[in-house]
Amino acid sequence: MREPVELRRQRILAVVQSRGAVRVTDLAAELNVSVVTVRRDVEELARAGKLRRGHGVARSAVPVEESSAPDEPPADGDTVALVVPERHSYLFETLHGARPVLEEAGLRIALHIAPQVPGAERPLVERALAGGARGLLIAPRWRSAAAEEADYGWLSGLGVPTVLMERRPRRGSALHALDSVCSDHWYGIHLAVDHLVSLGHRRIVLAARNDSPTARAIRAAFADIAAGRPEIEDWAITLSSPDAVPELGGPGPYAAVGPANSSSSSMTSAGGGAASSGGTGASADGAHTQGAPAPDGGRTVPAHGSGTSPGEATASAAENTHVDLAGLLRERGATAALLHGDVDALMLVQHLMDSGVKVPQDCSVVAYDDVVAALGSTPLTAVAPPKAAIGRAAAELLLYRLTRPHAAGAEPARRIELLPELKVRGSALPIPVTADSRSGLSV
């Protein structure tokens, strides 16, 4: 999937601002794009006054005396490491919140971008600590619950102050007592569902990724909230992209479904196991349950309506089957969709338009992330997690630990949650009160 230009430029700006000066060739290698593409992006950012362009180098627009990349290497103990996944504009925004807090304290951020391979964070962290980093801010990719579990041992024994950003380890795990700052995604989903219900929508579909802790928390929260709202007559969960599964061998674009999909009168909701789309559930706070059954008869079904059982899902199914959101909306009679994350949301809205489903006239849409939701041809109402505030709070917590080294172990760990907000932009409309207003999209 090609990365939108605006997202790529945000990433370039974040890297340049964190380091002070970066060679164009290094940016191209890190972003996995051509040097020509990066040079063009740097020219546009320089024209907008967001950075300065030199011969083969992009420099921060921040004056030299305030730059986070001084000419001389920092003395030992003046650096903290920040590790985030590559191609993750959401987490790059946390950098803007963390940077001023640490710089004002005389610390420099050493940004490390983890490639999209299992276990990529560990060697980066070890290298940073060997280079003298005093502390660590980290957001591991954790595409699956198994990948998360594999990191618990080494992350819990680093020996320096460490704060997890937008990650909430499983309760009772080795990282349960590690400092963390994250968004309350249950509350974010509550805002979205409450907004749609207030507009009269009673049949709602969630199209979400399933390859990150945030995605798993969002899916579990939606299943919990939708099943618990008596106003909601029907709900379903499907993938927002066929490649948004934890790993090869994962399921294709299957949906967890609510009441209307079962012929059994006992089916009244779908819960954590179904919501996980593939046997690994997640509680609303990010804790995982392995293979938890859906309560009250809830089950998963193919989003494309082929009748294939969930156990038959394969990697090839994920690769060869597109997510037919329009078909699922018609099948379920849904009038609203909640879409995670922003880039997938914009692409799905285009898919709906191409399939004859107008947004918001035929289907109201709320996006989740709010990185680029406002930039679509139809600006999307979106849940906006407090990305910069997450970075700021994580940096403040790390600084607190660094300034009290002798108190290590004497004070309780802190698990901080910040509340998202809803940005209303008009991609969701009230349902007209008519005799047919509850019938949803026609099949």
TrEMBL record:
Signal peptide: none annotated. PROSITE patterns: HTH_DEOR_1 (PS00894), HTH_DEOR_2 (PS51000). Residues 253-269 have a biased composition (Low complexity). The keyword Transcription applies. Keywords: DNA-binding, Transcription, Transcription regulation. It holds the Pfam family HTH_DeoR. One of its GO terms (molecular function) is transcription cis-regulatory region binding. InterPro entries: DeoR_HTH, LacI/GalR-like_sensor, Peripla_BP_I, Tscrpt_reg_HTH_DeoR_CS, WH-like_DNA-bd_sf, WH_DNA-bd_sf. This is DeoR/GlpR family transcriptional regulator. Coiled coil: none annotated. Residues 270-281 have a biased composition (Gly residues). Residues 5-60 form the HTH deoR-type domain. It comes from Streptomyces himalayensis subsp. himalayensis. Residues 57-76, 250-316 are annotated as: Disordered.
